[in-house]
Amino acid sequence: MIDEGTVPWPEDLAYAYRTADCWRGRPLGAYLWDWADAWGDHVAVVDGDRRLTYRELAVLSDGLAEQLIEHGLRRGDSVLVQLPNCWEFVVVTLACFRAGVVPVMMLPQHRAHELTAIAGHVEARALVVPDTWRGYDHQALAHQVAAGLPDGAAVLVVGADVRPHSVDVRSLMRCGGDVEARRRRLDGLAPSAADVALFLLSGGTTAVPKVIARTHDDYEYNIRRCADVCRFSRQTVYLAVLPVGHNFPLANPGVLGTLHRGGRVVMLPSPRPEQAFAAIEAEGVTATSVVPAVAIRWMEAVDGSGRDLSSLRHIHVGGSMLSPEVAGAIGPALGCELQQVYGMAEGLVCYTPVDAPRSVANTTQGRPLSPFDELLVVHPMTGRPVPPGAVGELLVRGPYTPRGYYRAPEQNAVSYTPDGWYRTGDLVRITPRGNLVVCGRVKDVINRAGEKISAAEIETLAQDIPDVAEAAAVSVPDAVVGERVCLVVRLHPGRELTLDRVAAALTERGLATFKVPERLVVLDDLPHTPLGKPDKKALRLLLTRAA
Ligand code: AMP
Ligand code: DBH
């Protein structure tokens, strides 16, 4: 069932990817029982006191998969999954893969603005949420979002407080019955490997986050290659501290890469050093992935933490710019090897290899996962290739980089070239030895601690504040989170505005908190480009001078 909203790879390339053993033609759910058959009694997932073996994981996931079908979900239907890092996330995701239901990976920080837009875009049939999380009533929000959908949607809840009209996810998993018979039934209903396995969100550059459709075939290849490059094995104990709705901790190699190799996944809902260090010590964690902001926090907290981190062998750091100085300090401070990662939910992932010389690990973002990845560095204005080693915008194609966003033909005309290259919006150069160095970007996003925030999304909402005549969202550098959102506005004559009012207005609209501007600058007039748009370059310069 190829969805009409996806952009397929050309037939000849799909054939080449299949014959080259990139695409293995098996849906992700099929691997669940491979793992259970091979490593049944081995612990697969740890979440606090809860420990699930591979067999338990398969049984619970199959139970939930069948119950999702019982509840009317069909192959190809999509389900918003908004859970913190917890064992239920793993079961829900694998159950979806088994049933051919497509999970849409949301973040716990998302609110009405994001949930409503995405649920509408993918025509979600259900939402999976915690009852409450960090003091926020997700269940109530999920019902509100579901009620706004033309056909409604089921609200599936993880937690103790499951209210009337909600469905208890944990009880669905434990539906009893004959495990073997159910396994065969689900095998018979399995999706095709060319189907969409999951939807990822792009940090994006548009007023609403973009949706990326990843197929079973392409995602499994991505997971497998990441696990190879990072040498994941049965001995791997992986700590998931970044929100697992992100591609990076989910699959690069992350949670799914660990399971694919028979290792053990430790789910932790926060990257705070105290909790993370305690988990590393208690579980003998060997690998984890973090954004630079988290790595910096960990380095600051490691002395005097009193924790034994000696099991930690590899730390994968990516998601935003990492200076060579900070990179060089991470390994010695945490007593492990740094691997830099440059990746994107749109596909391409680069890693510095295990055992790379320091010069490579500390100053580059590594090389692509696959020999079939095609990279082109072009002049951002002319689109023509730059000379070898020069800086330009990175374009990419390959076996795990889809050819377009989901149901977004107009955006695709901008973000993809006619011959299928994805325009990353990142400025890179490629070293003589083939390693990539990220040098900046041309896209209009703000990268706050690895979370990408679309300037257009903030501007669209800010423009609706009655006092605002014109708004521009720009990044301001920050020592801790890398960049913060600064809103620059021109007001209608005689009006006033404060940062608190901006924050209140955008929060009221249901914008995720991490996107809310942390600085406000009011100007009499905004500088403009010749095309009449706010001149972001000039604004950033103005802000750095004023700082
Ligand atoms: P997304 O498209 O939302 O998945 O975000 C991917 C983007 O994150 C990339 O296009 C880069 O802009 C940024 N990014 C990821 N890894 C790195 C890195 N190691 N250094 C700099 N930027 C990065
Ligand atoms: O930032 C990202 O989106 C990212 C970073 C590292 C990513 O998607 C990935 C690795 O796969």
Unreliable stretches = none
Mean pLDDT across all residues, rounded? 97
CATH class of the largest domain: Alpha Beta
Please tell me the total number of domains. 3
Shape: globular
Determine the structural class based on helices, strands and strand pairing.
alpha/beta
Q: In the CATH hierarchy, what is the superfamily of the largest domain?
A: ANL, N-terminal domain
Secondary-structure map with pairings?
Layout: H1 11-19, H2 28-39, E1 43-47, E2 50-53, H3 54-70, E3 78-81, H4 87-99, E4 102-105, H5 112-122, E5 126-130, H6 138-147, E6 154-158, E7 166-168, H7 169-173, H8 179-188, E8 196-202, E9 210-215, H9 216-229, E10 237-240, H10 247-251, H11 254-260, E11 264-267, H12 273-283, E12 287-290, H13 292-302, E13 314-318, H14 324-334, E14 337-344, E15 347-351, H15 358-363, E16 367-368, E17 374-378, E18 392-397, H16 409-415, E19 422-430, E20 436-441, E21 445-448, E22 451-454, H17 455-462, E23 468-478, E24 482-491, H18 499-508, E25 519-522, H19 536-546
Parallel strand pairs: 1-11, 3-4, 3-5, 5-6, 6-7, 10-11, 10-12, 12-13, 13-14, 24-25
Antiparallel strand pairs: 1-2, 8-9, 14-15, 15-16, 17-18, 18-19, 19-20, 21-22, 23-24
Helix pairs in contact: 2-3, 2-4, 3-4, 3-8, 5-6, 9-11, 13-14
Residues 247-248, 252, 318-319, 341, 343-345, 349, 450 line the site of 2,3-dihydroxy-benzoic acid (DBH).
